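A reminder from the course coordinator: this example appears on the midterm review sheet, so study it carefully.

Given structure:
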């Protein structure tokens, strides 16, 4: 039997709706690792676990915090996922962060998932099930209790069905690209970075680049969920031990990529934007926070027409054409929507029919029309050369 290709599952949902308790019940692993998380009883940082489904397929799980103060962290964790597990508490129903987390998922283009109505042992789940179905449509919804085990088998079966219908990133050709969410050092191993491998494969001995700083490193070893592997494929959580840079030279938001990856830091992105329903178009000069991978940067929006916009960044991002970005309002913070990168390194320009035509061609995968060079301005008449006094005397003698 051929082993199923890897996928990454991300949690979503309001604070205290039982995401971490449910992942613990499903995997046996507590994803809250920080003392402050255990003391306060809430998730603050991203947590990770391996989930084995009834079919034998394993998913990488990214458990995200639900508090509104940590939406930025949620976005960083959600950017690499392939499907979601949305948690709605039976005793609470749909809440503000339920809606915002769904807005983030829509912005990222993540459509496949399952709803778990948690804490079914504390309240009748029918109201929360009805609210969840109204919010997400035909997505499967299962009432569960992490404490009693009610509904866990049904939930695992639903996740298995969803996973079977989702294409793995490992099926797509491309160089290795990993967005770093942690960098640390281990005694006897050295620098270690972790993240979701977005594309390609990585193996011990590979040479890699680290952007945006342009550092070079060699992969000493590879792990997937604390187990050493010879080679890791895209679509799962990966840890890389790196030879070369210090762990202090690498931070969350950096990108580890193969040397042949056509990736460079950029301060401008041309994208097709998809705002949340009911929001007016963004005006020229609107300042937003752009999230890509595990990095974010403030930017000014320049509408280009037909849903396209140029995002002029205040700090570099490292995107590729086709990548998704999430746009959030800076103050008050709120998710505005998302977009798809069409040109990851455009020139600075404003709206025009020529620009729109070029971006539409890029979207279709066609070679865009070459921008026309501006017509040459007519050369101004050259002034008559000034004559010095000696030349004037010679001219007068000749006339005489």
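Designed residues:
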């Amino acid at each position: 039997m051929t082993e199923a290709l890897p996928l990454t599952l991300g949690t979503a949902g309001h604070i205290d709706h039982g995401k971490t308790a449910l992942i613990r019940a499903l995997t046996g692993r507590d994803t809250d690792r920080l003392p402050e998380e255990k003391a306060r009883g809430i998730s603050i940082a991203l947590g990770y676990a391996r989930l084995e489904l009834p079919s034998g397929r394993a998913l990488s799980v990214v458990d995200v915090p639900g508090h509104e103060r940590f939406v930025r962290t949620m976005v960083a964790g959600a950017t690499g996922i392939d499907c979601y597990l949305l948690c709605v508490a039976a005793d609470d129903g749909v809440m503000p962060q339920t809606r915002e987390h769904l807005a983030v998922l829509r912005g990222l283009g993540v459509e496949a998932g399952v709803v778990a109505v948690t804490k079914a042992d504390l309240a009748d789940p029918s109201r929360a099930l009805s609210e969840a179905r109204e919010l997400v449509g035909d997505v499967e919804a299962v009432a569960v209790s992490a404490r009693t085990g009610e509904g866990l088998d049904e939930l695992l079966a639903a996740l298995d069905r969803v996973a079977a219908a989702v294409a793995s990133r490992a099926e797509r050709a491309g160089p290795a690209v990993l967005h770093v969410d942690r960098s640390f050092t281990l005694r006897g191993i050295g620098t270690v970075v972790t993240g979701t491998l977005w594309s390609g494969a990585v193996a011990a001995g590979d040479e890699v680049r680290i952007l945006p700083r342009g550092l070079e490193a060699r992969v000493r070893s590879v792990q997937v969920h604390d187990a050493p592997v010879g080679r890791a494929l895209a679509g799962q959580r990966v840890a890389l031990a790196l030879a070369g840079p210090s762990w202090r030279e690498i931070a969350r938001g950096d990108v580890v990529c193969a040397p042949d990856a056509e990736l460079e830091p950029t301060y401008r992105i041309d994208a097709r934007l998809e705002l949340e329903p009911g929001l007016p178009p963004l005006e020229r000069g609107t300042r937003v926070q752009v999230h890509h991978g595990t990095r974010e940067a403030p930017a000014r929006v320049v509408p280009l027409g037909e849903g396209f916009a140029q995002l002029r960044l205040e700090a570099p991002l490292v995107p590729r054409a086709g990548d998704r970005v999430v746009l959030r309002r800076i103050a008050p913070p709120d998710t505005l929507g998302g977009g798809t990168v069409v040109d990851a390194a455009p020139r600075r320009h404003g709206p025009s029919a020529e620009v729109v035509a070029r971006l539409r061609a890029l979207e279709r995968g066609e070679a865009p029309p070459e921008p026309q060079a501006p017509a040459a301005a007519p050369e101004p008449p050259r002034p008559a050369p000034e004559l010095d006094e000696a030349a004037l005397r010679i001219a007068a003698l000749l006339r005489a």
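Residues 373-400 have pLDDT under 50 and may be disordered. The longest strand covers residues 295-305.
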